[in-house]
Amino acid sequence: MVAASSPAIGGPVGDHARSHPFWTPLRVVLALVTLAGALNLVHTAPCQTGAWWNGQSYANLCYSDVPIAHVQSGPSVDPAPVAALTWLAAAGARLADQPLEQEAETLYGIYALLMFGAMLGLAALLVRLSGRRPWDAAAFAIAPVLVLAATIGWDLLGALLAVAAVFAWSRRRPVAAGLLLGSAVATAVWPVLVLVATLVLAVRSRQLAAVGAVAATAAGVWMAWQLPPLLLAPGTWWDTVNHTLTGQIGYGSLWRLAAEYGLTLSTGLLVRLVVVGLVLVLVAVVALAVRARRPPRLPQLVLLLLIGVLVVWPVYSPQYVLWLLAFAVLARPQWRDLLIWQAGEVAYFLAIWWTLAGATVDVGTVDKPYAVAIGARVLAQLWLAGVVVRDVLHPELDPVRADLVTDDPAMPAR
Asked: Which of the chain's ends, N or C, has fewer CB atoms near its CB within 10 Å?
């Protein structure tokens, strides 16, 4: 897509041309991320001017957890790193001495700047992790889902820490990788899948000692992050860690789709089915990694684990797409497949907010647009997983390995 569009500004660089002295891939990607951050602020502008408080945030597609939670000011069940950043941002917002709702809007501005910093950090890391293909990171920088979902919650923080851990691991820095990964898991539970994928590949590459150092360091850092909430709020500490698999069906999942059509499950049965599904996903991905004639690349395994978990999980919030984005760019750096997947995610993004706004719900009947959007999103995720599985089984089709030189830029060279 980029190459096809380039003739408008002079055409692709020739074989003997010198690179531009200033516009390196990193700087171009960071400029594109800056554009994405600006577009995010534009599309959330209605909420910044009052839609959060007049009930129009869903209809305007600009909902964010952060200012709403600040106004409600209930007991915090945020993970420790998120709670710390929220407290610092709120302290900065209070310096202006404004009414509560205006204070929340100021808080959102500070938070949005932090998320913009996370976007820049992720883009820079992806340029480095793309090896000989630094322009692959542009697929992250101008991703539609990044523009739409970047400031719903703190999810970019967990993604940044997880990708930074992968980068440290690729540079043979297991202690640094453990520090970052432990903080990532303390921020959001899902980065533990990065450790699972690393462990599986370490078995094949005989790097268990290094992975052991990563795991031990990560466990110690995770426990250190739990001490402040455990000491300051022991009654709510466990809720900051275990607030995911509660047995309740949330928006966006296949279980919600089943419930739309009348299939009801008890809480206990739902939890058991989800656990069985998670085990099957883990077994399938491990079997694929073990049986493939060439070890899969680390981002490929992480992406497959994430997609499998999200497909069987009982809730899928629209910002969860940010868990996948960076690893999708590394695992399958092809515009066609990334845009097919994101088309399903964008369709779901529109459907969930319009459903919550009451625009598509008919009392007593199935919300068909929303049901179709759930199905489209899952099919799009399975499409992406399918092409990644094909790349694992046939490494010659993997764009990263097609040059017959590059192996896995995310794994330390042996």
From this structure: C
